[in-house]
Amino acid sequence: MQVMPHEPEIKPHQPLSDKIARDLEKIMDIEVTKKSYQRAPILALVPIAVLAQLSILQTRAADTSAPSPTPITKAAEATTVSSSQQLQPFYLDEQLANRLNKVIDEAIEQKRIVGTVVMVAQDGRVVYKRAAGLANRENKKPMMQDSIFRLASMSKTVVSAAALKLIEEGKLTLNDPVTKFLPDFRPKLADGSSPTIQISQLLSHTSGLGYGFSEKKDGPYHQARVSDGLDQPGLAMAENMKRLASVPLLSPPGSKWCYSLSIDVLGAVLEKAANSSLSEIVRSKVTAPLAMNDTDFSLPSAKRKRLTTPYYDNPAKDKTGLAPLPMQALQLVAFDGGCFSFVPDRLFNEKSYPSGGAGLSGTAEDYLKLLEAIRTADKKLLSADSFNQMKTSQIGKLSISPGGDWGFTYGSAVLLNAKPERGPHNAGTLQWGGAYGHHWFVDPTARLSVVELTNTTVEGMSGPFSKDIAKAVYGSKQ
Questions:
Q1: What is the pLDDT of residue 82?
Q2: What is 352-383 written as a DSSP string?
Q3: Interatomic CA distance for residues 97 and 185, integer angstroms
Q4: What are the residues facing 443 on neighbouring strands?
Q5: What residue spans of 139-251 are helical by DSSP H?
Q6: Which of 116, 137, 112, 113 is nearest to 128 (CA)?
Q7: How confident is the model at residue 349 (pLDDT cuts 50, 70, 90)?
């Protein structure tokens, strides 16, 4: 189901006064020309002066000489936004806004989340942007549209894109063995043999590796003190690779899909292949080309005031409706039979290795730029072949879900079989999330990119909130 009609009615374009153009630039974070303005159906919550002079905003200019819409990936370069504007929600579709606002407001009122930033883009234009709730509840600090979040596993898509860029440049190949770059990384199977793990198997999570959070507290990853990239501040990459290599593989490489530390290993490989730090690789290959200016493995002191405080679901919330709890210095959070181990201050320790699978921090606006680059196959990031690998399943007949409905690309899950009773997404939809409380999806058929960041785990990642956001975007009652 699509949010808007594919071919809206075309109206004659109207010239914009200088004042209207300036007002639109302020509220929309984009450049506006006087010749024409392009939009999705309804503009809500904008200055009255704008609405008074623009009785209808145009979707497409009647003359073919009109400039094309400003790409999302250039939005941050257009203008500097004030703090008051970071609080101002922006809507282009009133019905969409009503549905999303209802979901967000209810989640905050019901104390399921503390705060969130939600952004929706269709056809390359932001149609919804809102910050709601609190970035820090104890200090009553409001959530802002430029609030910075610990991205956790949303880092994987970024690092995967960087890897594909290095492959395009000939620094490594998909068929290279990991040992070509990490000679000592030779984890064994239960029978004592040490199989070859290929770069492609790291990207697709078919390497045979696993995650500590998914095993019991006395499991081999815990016994070896392997970090999932969310804790143990100051731990060096080489040491974590050594610990990980000491743990038996869960399965022969290529035989099963298993969510894992593969992208952390990939990060170590990329550093050797490019003879550079993972932070610099990501910056030069992904975040700089897309103007993702707030996304990095470290956080400068000047930006720390924008960092959100992390919370976790109150274990008693189902019985008492208690609010989420603030994370402590070391916070264990039960999840799906296992347990996440969070140390939020890991981000501030310069000696912490850059976890390719969990170490980035960033903003909703930054991440939307990446999603749109993937959706549109933006050639300034990757080639068409690389984007195809990020948008189609790379695990053959394997599946990441019961029933085989979801496959896995080089960077995210991909919906293979759309079933309305299981959700509103179209086949080909990409999605993933982050353990600190995030979720995103890209629906190429509906021309949609959606990012939802919260400071509340696990509700914001895999709880009803993320599912309700998706339903609201599509207008689905399923």
A1: 59
A2: S---TTT--EE-HHHHHHHHHHHHHT-TTT--
A3: 50
A4: 448
A5: 155-168, 199-203, 220-223, 237-245
A6: 116
A7: very high
How far apart CA 443 and CA 109 sit, in angstroms, is: 29
Cα gap 391→387, rounded to integer Å = 6
Residue 50 to residue 361: CA distance in whole angstroms: 36
> For residues 333 and 331, what is the distance between their CA atoms, to the nearest angstrom?
6
Per-residue model confidence (pLDDT) at position 247: 98
| Secondary structure of residue 339 in the 3-state scheme | strand
Q: 220 to each of 31, 157, 159, 336, how far by Cα in Å?
A: 54, 27, 26, 18
Give the CA dihedral 87, 324, 298, 291, nearest 10 degrees: -40
Residue 9: CB atoms within 10 A of its CB come to 9
Q: What stretches of 377-446 show up as alpha helix (H) in DSSP?
A: 384-391
How far is the CA of 121 from the CAs of 299, 334, 469, in angstroms? 27, 33, 14
pLDDT band at 83 (very low <50, low <70, confident <90, very high): low
Q: Is the pLDDT of residue 161 over 60?
A: yes
The answer to pTM > 0.70 is yes
Which residues, other chains included, contact 134 with Cβ-Cβ below 8 Å and sequence gap of 6+? 114, 115, 140, 141, 142, 143
Is residue 460 within 8 A of residue 149, CB to CB? The reply is no
Task: Look at residue 174 in the predicted model and tell me its pLDDT.
Answer: 98
- The dihedrals phi and psi of 112, each to the nearest 5 degrees, come to -85, -30
Catalytic residue among 36, 153, 155, 386: 153
153 is catalytic: yes
CB atoms within 10 A of CB 120: 26
What band does 389 get if pLDDT is binned at 50, 70 and 90? very high
Q: What CA–CA distance (Å, rounded) separates 309 from 302?
A: 16
Determine contact, residues 468/323, Cβ cutoff 8 Å: no
Query: What gap in Å lies between CA 447 and CA 376, rounded to an integer?
Result: 9
pLDDT band with cut points at 50, 70 and 90 for residue 318? low
Cis peptide bond prior to 458, omega within 30° of 0: yes
- Residue 354 pLDDT grade (very low, low, confident, very high; cuts 50, 70, 90): very high
Cα Rg, the chain, nearest whole Å: 22
Q: Which amino acid is at 422?
A: R
Cα–chain center distance at 259: 17
